[in-house]
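thread: overnight batch results

M.L. [08:02]
morning all. the overnight job finished for the chain we discussed friday. pasting input first so we're all looking at the same thing
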Amino acid sequence: MYALNASSGALLWSTLETQFLSASSPAVANGMVYIGSDNGLAALDAKTGTGLWFYSTAPNDSSPAVANGVVYVGDRDGNIYA
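M.L. [08:03]
and the structure it wrote out:
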């Protein structure tokens, strides 16, 4: 995962953490990057890319959604986590 400056294209940070492997788009809200992955949902600091927390789920390919401070993600088993 890479974070780029939207104006200049300069690299801000990158991470190669394997638990963040994903086929979906991340969600960015409230200074955090949320990533649905092959083994759960991860949250990273949007400024630094530092992993903040990880919640284990079945594999998911859906993009997380954020509303009113709650992160939602669905997994391949048909569950939705909040």
